Amino acid sequence: MSAVTGRRVKSLAAAASLAATALITCLLLIRTTGITYDEPSSLAFSWAYWNGGPPNGVIEYPPVISYLRGAVLLALGAEAPRIPAQLNPASVDPHAYGQFFLFYNRVPPERLLFWGRAAGLLLLGLLLAAVHLWGGLFALAFAALDPNLLAHASLATSDLPLTAFFATSLALWAWARGGGPAWAAAAAGAMAGLALGSKATAALLPVVFVLSEVWTWAINRRVDRKGLMAVLSALAICLIVVVLAYLPTGGLKAMFMYRAAQMGDPAPSYLFGRAWPRGHALYFPAILMIKTTLPLLVLGVWGLLDRRLWTKVENYRRIALTATALLLLAAMSVRFQYGVRHVLPLYPLLTLGAGAAAAELWRRRGVWRLAAGAALAWHMASSLSSLPHPLAYVNEAFGGPKNAWHIVGDSNVDWG
Q: What separation in angstroms does the CA of 197 have from each of 54, 68, 163, 387?
């Protein structure tokens, strides 16, 4: 075995170990984390996608992850919720419908909840594979041990599925525009379509494809025909996948109108120990400062902003930076501010930057190599210290998880 092959085998073994650590941690969290407010209705609507929809005809959750979870629930033998006779099924609130489904079913609620959550671990694996493909081993280490990704990967919600498809789409797009095969652009579009079938936030992905390519054209001072074809194929495949995902539901327009109205409707938020009746423009930047481990925050920002770290794959940084800026600006423009989960797709991007910065420190050897190891160890220790309640993670600068409820609320701590 050559030295190069030996290093590659060791790298793949390390990557597999990190991914296994994340998946095992999530399996333990699935068993120990209490039910959140949204999970019963998420599970119920997932089952309903395979059974003609709920009695009130309202499909509140996007289809892609719902079909996956619904298939698992069908395999368990779940049945329609037993709604009390004195209630009109057509007027049952979606969350009440979820409670009836979970607690008035032939399958025990513990089993429904476990397997409904566990179905999402397939997408955690996809997310980690995308981060490794895009950013290498250091980026994977930061992602596999991130408290926010671990927390939301353990729940039956749509936040981690969106993040997984979002990151995979961008990783494939970066690969396509960095000399990868022609089919990678189409695959990026397909993943963008699946992301749009998971949450409306993914509407930013086609914009990232276009803007990152325009940025490249501006630098090169010419339009690249190959790049133009890649953009058009990605957008076309994305549209086809979105239509196919929503076609059985007949609810694409209704779903997007519902979410658009929700995003534009000011809602009270809780930050730094006080309530903001109409939200706050800096809510999400503040939440990222509070709920991101300090090593990931510092290295992630450095890695995304310093182009010297990306001399061989500068387009990777352009794509990541474009996506980061769009996500953050979009989040700051809305007043629907219930937690870091609304900007969860930022975390794979931060881990990409942190991976690039840590890899640079590692290459410098000596004390710099020790600094890279110390940063990763700090990230890991800080994350693990929040177990078994990573949902309430707060970094050391803000007092740690025990201080979470003093400064943040809702799904930043718990929403059970």
A: 19, 12, 12, 31
